[in-house]
## 1
Amino acid sequence: MKQLFNEMKSPFGKRDDIVQNSPGRTDLICDRRPVTILMTGTIAPPSGMPGTRRNDPRIRQREYLDAFSFYLNIDDKFVDRLIFLQNSNNSLKEFTDLAAASNTQKQINLIRCPSEYSAEMGKGYGEFMMIDYGIRVLRDSGIFDNSSIFWKITGRLRLINISEMISTSPEPYDLYCDLRYLPFIKDTLGGNSWMELRAFSFSLDFYSSVLENQYERGFVLEKEFFKIVLEQMKQERWKIVPRFRRQPVIQGVSGYSNVSYSSPKYRVKNAIRTAARRLAPSLWV
């Protein structure tokens, strides 16, 4: 197994960075440039974090490791770099060991991010402060150009059909996401006037120009980012695709409800959204 260890240089200090490899799916065709997956992680949430019921660091670390292993094994033709951002002070040795034991040709970067924020600011604040930091490090590294495509994924979750979502994504785009807006049902199926932030895809240029430094806009960033994206769509500067072509299939446990995404409640929501996406794609369910 070929291994290459390196260090990502940035003005923010030393990074854990490792490059290694793994097999992956071969049943789908991908005729486009591979993407970078950007996993976000908070192994030990700040005490008193509102809206977070899954707080045990041991459980969370295992979930991050399981997801990290899953994305390591995505076929390299879809994903050629995996980045894990982490903003608590837990050791990342198990992640480097897991990468070292794999066969992947992916570039792997583990980046420690600052964690100096008050729990009352909320998990969205902490997550997107972390992403901003990571994006600055990556931008300063010179590895990426403005057109580089990232898929941001909440790090404890496994986006089971990520290969299909990548292979069926529109091309080109600056933002590929899922917006929800159905005034007559309000929040019956979950957040309304809402941008799905567990998973979305963007170009480096779009994030740097539009989404960076927006984490202080409000407590529920899904609603704030929805407003930002709608405004950008009106301006028509960017290529924004506001609905996924495929329904995301997520495995894991919600940090907000502490309920599995495989539970009947979430399976019903997923079935409704899958049907609407196929039969009435103009409905932002």
## 2
Amino acid sequence: MISNLNIETSDIDSSRGQHTCLYKIFSSEVDPTKIFVFIHGLGVHVTSYLDWLERFVNKGYVVYSFDLPGHGRSSGKRGDVGNYYKLYQLISDTISRGKSEYSSLPVVLYGHSLGGNILLSFIQNSNISSVSCCVVTAPWVRLDGNMYGAIFRFCRWLYSKRLSLIVPRNIWNFKSYNEEDPLVHHKIATRTFYEAQNAGSFFFREDSFGDMNICLVHGAQDMATSALISRELSKVHNNFTFGLFRNTRHHLQNSEEADEIFSYINKWIDGSV
């Protein structure tokens, strides 16, 4: 059991009987210093990351988040995050929730894996004037190789027909976070694959992130997303900082280098807000 964490949950209803599970995670024993908007990765949910989020909460971060559609306690077909533009609105609403309670605190965005892809796309397509900086860890930028190219073309064709299939994600080399967690699933929608790959194709456009300071962190042993592509992306944008950790795989919060990674991220944030 994690100590000193207050976890508040609530649901918001959308059209067609769907709902999204919202979270606020904080400590009453620490003075708040930053609003921390967190977007999780594929197949998991917010509370999969409690150990990692606790580190930030102990530094005064107040976490605002939500289970992505099709994940955790939110409704929707498992593995289908839905339309990206609707996700942008969810993120904007989450930022507004934080600012309504802590108007004087800076806003920090943080996304892991698919969550990193969603946040980078959000920055490119939304009003981010209230955001101070962004951290993405092990982001889905682009999945390379002949297999992924063929999958993308198939998913694009389905998308053009307004069709989407739910398939086991293990056939696409996506690994599970926690096999024993009943809320963790092993599925991905073809629409989600298309949306993520398509969004990543725009990340390499020069000046497409404005003046937003972005810290991109990756493990060199990551077999799900590519540290080499993350490094390549960071070279395109002057406002990107790239951190590579050589003994870390995809779920860097479980790495033997986790203490070092957290210190690196926290120090970068302190220097950016």
## 3
Amino acid sequence: MKKKIGQTIFGLLILAVLMIAGWYIINWLFRSFLGLDKALASSIIAGFVALISLIFAYWKEREKSRQEAHREKKTEIYSIFFDIVFRILKETKNKNPTTPYAESQELQDSLYELMKGVLAYGSPEVVLSIGRWRLNSNASSNTILLHVGDILLAMRKDIGLSNKGLTNINIHQVYVLDDMEKLLKETQ
């Protein structure tokens, strides 16, 4: 306990010294700048602004290229989840499937690939929503449907799509013919 207090005091002392030194340096630079010729001062300002602009543009371009590279991989991984959901939906329309997909090894393999990819490339929101879905896999069908909606919204957001006007209920309206909000209210 004493060690933590000592470290905190030492850290605050270093911070205070750095702030005082920074103040003196900024003050000295400002006074030196005011003493310069106006033409030289404007050239220095222009050069400083150009340098900051160049650094900012480089940083933004690098960030954009990194996001674009990850977006492609995320889309590939998230399509595994879409394939799983739509395959189960398709199977529910076929009343008597020979081998239920929900119990197949193929589903287990797809889920394994999805989890592996989401851990590597998914945003925290996607990882958490899939975790909640997996934890509640034995819940009611309405709860599972809401969790799937959360996952779909998180995935859309993660790849840069807008979710304006979408909820974890009405996002299912794309592939369900009944009014989802009314259906969920009736079954609760």
